[in-house]
Structures are given as structure tokens and as C-alpha cells.
Amino acid sequence: MRQILTDFTNLFHVDRLSLLLMGLVAFVAISIASFSIRYLKGDRRQKTFFVNLLALVTTVFMMVCADHILILLLSWAVSNTLLARLMLHKREWEAARQSSILAIKNFALGFVFLGAALAILYNVTGETSIQAMLAKSIESKWLIAASIFLLLAAMTQSALWPFHRWLTSSLNSPTPVSAIMHAGLVNGGGFLLARFAPILTGQPAILNVIFIVGIITALLGTLWKLMQSDIKRMLACSTMSQMGFMIAQCGLGLFPAAVAHLCWHGLFKSYLFLSSGSAAKEKRIDLDYPPSVKDFSLALIYGIIAACMFSLSTGKQILVMDTTLFLKFLAMIAGVQFALPIIRGNAKGKLLLALLGAIVAGSFYGFSVRLVESVLEPLGISMPQQLNVFHFFAAALLTVSWLAMMFARPSKQTANPEWLLKKYVQMLNASQPHPSTITAHRNKYQF
């Protein structure tokens, strides 16, 4: 028995990151299973669905607890294969089959990337234990290659551009499958980077690359989300955007903040998918935009207050000159977006209500980040970086994009220029699922 326990501890390592993610996955899986009992009532493949779901949760538990590189690689492959099987719930439906095939191709590519990264790390360190690898001081040019392969594996798993097509093409999956996909496995890229954070934090150039690809994906996902005509496509692009912000936080060296983002996104996105059937329509554009200068100025003040509350609740200085400042900048934008509809509404005491909302929202987000930081503190993966030109450029780009969406409204009397219309069509086409995963006629839907 002692030998069995020794062998187990050599294969697995249960730390605070593992426990946090297992708790998240278990809660989401139980919620989805409860929903699926009603959703799949009478479905002839109901039993198979629950067997695959249980197997998927088990392999995800193995993945987040794996310490041996082969266990990590095997559980990574099996969990993604089970997800593809869940996507193929309606086997006779050709569009669903093509979605599953597209996902498998993407996951196979990610498997190759992860395998290459682990092979390089094994060759450099001579260790098969992930914890032993992380404990070593590695100085090798091969470390850069391993880090790049880790990033590519994370990008394929989390549907970052240009590996996003499998996610936007998975919309014909049953709603419970979409929920477990968007709330669970798509977050695997964030987990992978957080697990290997001690290797990445010593390489500022790699962190800059991680930050850049995250910001690009976040901007594209946000823009594409505004172009969609149905709720599931909008949610898919939203997930892509949120994964971009999560990976960007890893690039800032703020891995605990990325894990906190991962947790809240998982909970919120599973709720959105499970409740998507009750959404009769979504209001895409507020026709009363742009806001007045007075309303926007008030909202900006409340956004600054939200950012200050975020800073205070995380226990950090407000104007500290490292990458935590970028996170406070995002909290400020979120505070403005939260306060603006309240200010422009007709509620009594709306200014006080907006103020209280900004304080509560900023504090809640800050406390959640601080809580995850305290939980993961023994791992030593919070390593804020020095601000550089990439961070300032990204902040400027986000600001311009945000203000453009807020205030730039085409005139009804003036026709849009041809180049703008062409760009819009190009962006719209780029955001669409693969043609083979679309059911063009209802007669092609096999149930």
C-alpha cells in the first residue's frame, strides 16, 4: 500500500491551483448535469452523454493534478477527445460531425505543441516531474522554444486567434455541451500557462508575446461579437474575447488574476449558455447613443472610483508603475460601462446608485482577485512586470476602440464609404463558422 501511495504521489501533485480548478469544474459539471436531466429527457443517447460527461470531468481532474509529463499529455488528449465526442451527440447530423472533426484537428495540433514543449523541457532538465522541472533553474536557448510551444498549445485550447475557428464552428453542439466547453475546457490554456508560470516569468520577451496575442484576440472577439445575429454566435465570440483578456493577464505576469478571470468567466458563461434558450431577443444597439458629454464625464469619474476601489481591495498602491496598472485601467473602463446605463436611466437617485454600483463592483472584483492571489501565494506565480511600450500601445488601442464604439455613429444622411463597407464584410466573414458546420436547410438536420 505504501508503494502504491508513493507511485501515486510521483504521478500526481495536488496543490492549491489543482484544488481551485477541481472545485470550479465540479460545480459547473454538477450544474450542467442537473440541467441535462431535463434538457435530454427522452433523448436516445442520454445515457451515453452522461457517461462521456463523467469521463470528461475525471480526465480534467487528472489533467490539473498531473505531475508526470506523460500523465499531463495523456489526460490533455483524452479530455479533448471526450469533448469532441460530446460535440458529436447527433451522429447522423453532418454539420455536427464536421464540427467534431474540426475540433479534433485543432486539438491534435495542440497535442503536438504540448508534446514538443514537454519533450524539450525533459531534454533540458532530465526530469519527468513537472514540479521538479519548475524547481530547477534552467538557462538554455531551448527554453525559449519550449515556452513558445506552451503558448501555442494554450492558444489552440483557448481558441485564440488564429486558432479560433473550431470554437465558432461548434455552435450546433447541444446546449449542455456548449456550456461545459465554454466554461471548462476552453480555459485549459490559462491553466497551462499558470502551471508553467515559473518558467515563463523569467522571460520578459515571451511574456510580451503572450500579452500581444491575448490583446489581439480580445479586440477581435469583442468586435466580432457586436456583428453576430444570434445569441450562440455572440457567446462564442464573447468567449474568444474573454480568453484573450485571460491570456493577456498571463502576459502581464499576473497569473492569479488570470485564474480569477478564468473562474468568474467559467461560472458566468455556463449560466449564459444554460439560460440562452430563454432569450427571445437581444438589444444590439442603443439607439440613444452616443451619450452626452455630461453623462460620459460623470461615468468616467465613477469608473476612476471603481478602479481605485479595485486597487484598494487588492491591497496594492493605486499608481504603482508595473503591469498591475494595466489591470486597473481595465477596471476603470468596466466601471464606466457599468455606471453609464444607470446615469442615463430614469431611476430615482441614479447618481447615488451609480456611485454605489461602481464602489461595489470595483471592490468585489478586487477582493476576488486578492482572494485567488492569497490562495495561490505559496506557488509564487504572481510576478508583475515593468511597463513597456507594448502595454502603453495596447492601452491606447483599447481606449481608441472603446471611444469609437461609444461615440462614432454613422450619419443617416451620409452613405458609408466603400472601403468601410468592404472591411465590415471581411470582418463579418472572418467571424463566421466553417461552411461545412452550418446547416443551410432544416431537412439536413438529422435527429
From TrEMBL:
Keywords recorded for this protein, A-Z: Membrane, Transmembrane, Transmembrane helix
Compartment list: Endomembrane system; Membrane
Transmembrane segments: 17-37, 49-79, 99-122, 142-163, 175-194, 206-226, 246-274, 295-313, 325-344, 351-369, 389-408
A Pfam family per the record: Proton_antipo_N
Domain NADH:quinone oxidoreductase/Mrp antiporter transmembrane intervals: 66-336
UniProt keyword Transmembrane helix present: yes
A GO BP annotation: ATP synthesis coupled electron transport
Entry's Gene Ontology cellular component terms: endomembrane system; membrane
GO terms of molecular function: NADH dehydrogenase (ubiquinone) activity; NADH dehydrogenase activity
Domain NADH-Ubiquinone oxidoreductase (complex I) chain 5 N-terminal: 12-50
Topology versus the membrane: Multi-pass membrane protein
Main subcellular localisation: membrane
Annotated PANTHER family: INORGANIC CARBON TRANSPORTER SUBUNIT DABB-RELATED, NADH-UBIQUINONE OXIDOREDUCTASE CHAIN 5
Protein name: Proton-conducting membrane transporter
Gene source species: Flavipsychrobacter stenotrophus
